[in-house]
Write a structure and sequence with these properties.
Layout (H helix, E strand, L loop, with lengths): L5 E8 L5 E8 L6 H15 L5 H28 L1
Antiparallel strand pairs: 1-2
Helix pairs in contact: 1-2
Length: 81
C-alpha cells in the first residue's frame, strides 16, 4: 500500500434501502469515492447556475450517492457471475 493511501469504510444505503459497507482505497486521506464523485458533480451544477450553494452541495451528494450505489450493484453482479 502506498504510504499516503488509506482505506476508508463507509456505510451507504443502496436503492433497495439496504446498507452496504464499502471500502475505498483512497490516495488522498479524508476523501472518499463519494466525495470525489460529488466534487465532479458540483462542477456541472455550478456551470448550470444552480444556487444557493447548499442546494449545489445537496444535489452533488445525491448524484454521488447514486453513482456509488450503481458501482456497488455492478460489483455485486460481477461477483455473482
Amino acid at each position: 500500500m502506498h504510504p499516503c493511501q488509506i482505506v476508508v469504510k463507509e456505510q451507504l444505503e443502496g436503492f433497495a434501502g439496504m446498507l452496504h459497507e464499502v471500502e475505498h482505497n483512497v490516495k488522498h486521506p479524508g476523501m472518499s469515492l463519494r466525495d470525489h464523485f460529488a466534487a465532479l458533480a458540483m462542477q456541472g451544477l455550478i456551470i448550470q447556475g444552480i444556487r444557493p450553494l447548499d442546494e449545489v452541495v445537496r444535489q452533488a451528494y445525491e448524484y454521488a450517492s447514486a453513482m456509488v450505489a450503481a458501482n456497488i450493484a455492478k460489483i455485486t453482479q460481477e461477483e455473482d457471475v
